[in-house]
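User: I'm putting together notes for a lab meeting next week and I want to include a structural view of one of the chains we've been expressing. I don't have a solved structure, so I'd like a prediction I can at least talk through. The sequence is below, exactly as it appears in our construct file.
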Amino acid sequence: MPRVLTIDDNPLFLTVMNDLLARFPNVRMVGSAINGIEGLAAARALEPDMVIVDMKMPGLSGLEVAERLHREQPDVRVVLISLMDGEACQASAAAAGAESFICKKDLFSRLPAILNCHEPVLVAA
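Assistant: Thanks for the context. Below is the predicted structure for the 125-residue chain, given as structure tokens.
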């Protein structure tokens, strides 16, 4: 059962994402944060299996959170999400050490496969 931490600077989207994750009986929510600094501190304290983090946030971005987690807690699966889509976002996510990238509009359709490790992992070029 993966232990999941969510990080997004949009409180409404964070609530929607957490409600979606609550529908999965095989997922245990361990926390959420509204910015990268709080999210990184929560990841250090809670030691989740997976962190789902918004790519672009003021202050410490999701890319920076992913890079730091990749160095400090390499076993944590990081999934970056964004309103933007495309190869550039996927490449940035991979370079930051994220396992996956999801456009927010595709979150509902792609999240189940990612939670169950059925999606291919991003590879940095």
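A couple of points you could mention at the meeting. DSSP finds five helices and five strands in the chain. The chain has a mean pLDDT of 90.

User: Perfect, that's what I needed.
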